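Q: What structure does this chain adopt?
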Amino acid sequence: QVQLVESGGGLVQPGGSLRLSCAASGITISIHTMGWYRQAPGKQRELIAAITSGGSTNYADSVKGRFTVSRDIGKNTMYLQMNSLKGEDTAIYSCAAKRFAYEYWGQGTQVTVSS
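A:
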């Protein structure tokens, strides 16, 4: 059974930092393309960061330079380091794993940026 479990969300002040984790079981993240998505209230879900099986990363313009995606293959876990957080980063953040026709999703974690 495949599980992706996000953690690390919470309430943070503008300008602050959070690190999200996506712990995987039942799959090996090193052979999947892993991605972080977010969905803000009233908006469509968007892909904000991804890391390929080869370790290449890419980011949405809205988070480039502030967020960093990484992975620990030994822990089978992906991370999202979020710095210089803004109010518009408030959303539910979810991780996903994709390989060929297979796609798996976590349940999401809430990130709220507010003073």
